[in-house]
């Protein structure tokens, strides 16, 4: 086996193993959970014990029949409508809970009659998910004298929460403290929560403002896929913290509850993230805040908390604290704008993954190409052209080296014949030949090796970013984040039955148009060179395009579009470079020649 074939086999096998055994070769980093740093600042009042946030579990106690679902929960207490250009829903006066939120710009599927996405839902509904705010009692005030999850607030100002009209809730504890909460919202997904307490008594009181997000059980639509993080996401002064849903109940038990926390965070936020949507508590960055996550086993509730420093309010004084709540879609431009407005590293709430140094710039280019072109599929092809242009100097050297290797074939065969069974003599002769002719036998592997991290990073971008969700290309390809919807099974829609469901064995076997084009493009690219004479090599090369065709058939169609474009451009580059070096590839002859080899590799 000559060195050229060895290198080609090496590159082929390496690429194949990496794609199949992605996780084995490139495991994602272990996500870091919130830990208790040593000597952290305690958010306490000088004369009181540490503020304790009440459990959100009580918010579900009033709903005993979950089968009534949203109707009973929504009618449980008076509600304030929420209506903007992008969201709709309501806020319950019971606890002042933000617990009914729908995203107008997003549908659950690409079908015309698909319902819009529901992000938050009240206690008592499946996948209950909501945000709560209140005050934790300190010195001079009893727990029942502060507003909590089941406090019934009064709407004192406003009727509908909109961009132009905030609403104000009030509650009097009949003990000398008047609480108010003003809620406003911007044109996108950011709520501003202003909490105020006016102490009309003669005595000082101490209390700590808090916010929490509660999620009842693991979401039913959780992907549970290794490439995607879902669960806790938080920022601690520049350090991104992530814990998957399944790992939160495994945290260290504190006071009978699995939980972890960080104290003294001044640039941070905390919440829960899904595939494309999330909620986050965003405290005032100027205030040292306690961030924590816990799991309540009895009610199976996941809960994140943001507790600000304890306030001591003297008689006749007023204390005010303002925080933010993000509840919406993980749109790159929106998160970037919020980051520019002071939400520290908010763009990192998108799961960029281990190859973030590639996924971030790849997405940036793809996003702006889509804005320029207006079609995400064409933008992916444009991205492929840019990547190939950047790698062209390396590809040029590689293809020139491969063309020279073809010219050296007669001399290499002569060296083999002269060396006989003396492998050391053969290797020395080969090295002298390569050095004399200035040929790098490994150059052919470099373009393939460079493509591996790019391929993974683009896969990550297509799978996790919202901008690729339901992004159309043309014809039947209306969601580039989903597998090819066409199938040989129904002859691409001409026969009167549906194609196999994505993810099934039938869908893998009865592949669509894009995987077929992928296999053909790989096959033609392979035929730029004659088939190897070794039977084992010949078999590997013969099967490789079709194995990849079936293997990548279930991937996102946007990724397959990239791979087809990459193969087509590579074919064109290699063909032109080989011609420029005096070697004319005989594609048809190579195809015919590959069909004439016998079992021993000799032409018939």
TrEMBL record:
One GO CC term on file: plasma membrane
Keywords noted in UniProt: Cell membrane, Chaperone, Membrane, Protein transport, Transmembrane, Transmembrane helix, Transport
Protein transport among keywords: yes
One example of a Gene Ontology biological process annotation: protein insertion into membrane
UniProt keyword Cell membrane, yes or no: yes
Transmembrane segments: 7-26, 371-396, 439-459, 502-524, 545-565
InterPro entries in UniProt: Membr_insert_YidC, Membr_insert_YidC_N, YidC/ALB3/OXA1/COX18, YidC/Oxa/ALB_C, YidC_ALB_C, YidC_periplasmic_sf
Signal peptide interval: none
Membrane topology: Multi-pass membrane protein
Principal localisation: membrane
Source domain of life: Bacteria
Localisation per UniProt entry: Cell inner membrane; Cell membrane
Membrane insertase YidC N-terminal domain location: 79-365
Domain Membrane insertase YidC/Oxa/ALB C-terminal: 376-579
One example GO MF annotation: membrane insertase activity
PANTHER family, sorted: CYTOCHROME C OXIDASE ASSEMBLY PROTEIN COX18, MITOCHONDRIAL, OXA1
HAMAP family in the record: YidC_type1 (MF_01810)
Quaternary assembly: Interacts with the Sec translocase complex via SecD. Specifically interacts with transmembrane segments of nascent integral membrane proteins during membrane integration.
Function recorded in the entry: Required for the insertion and/or proper folding and/or complex formation of integral membrane proteins into the membrane. Involved in integration of membrane proteins that insert both dependently and independently of the Sec translocase complex, as well as at least some lipoproteins. Aids folding of multispanning membrane proteins.
Family: Belongs to the OXA1/ALB3/YidC family. Type 1 subfamily.
Listed name of the protein: Membrane protein insertase YidC
Organism taxonomic ancestry: Bacteria, Pseudomonadati, Pseudomonadota, Alphaproteobacteria, Rhodobacterales
Encoding gene, per UniProt annotation: yidC
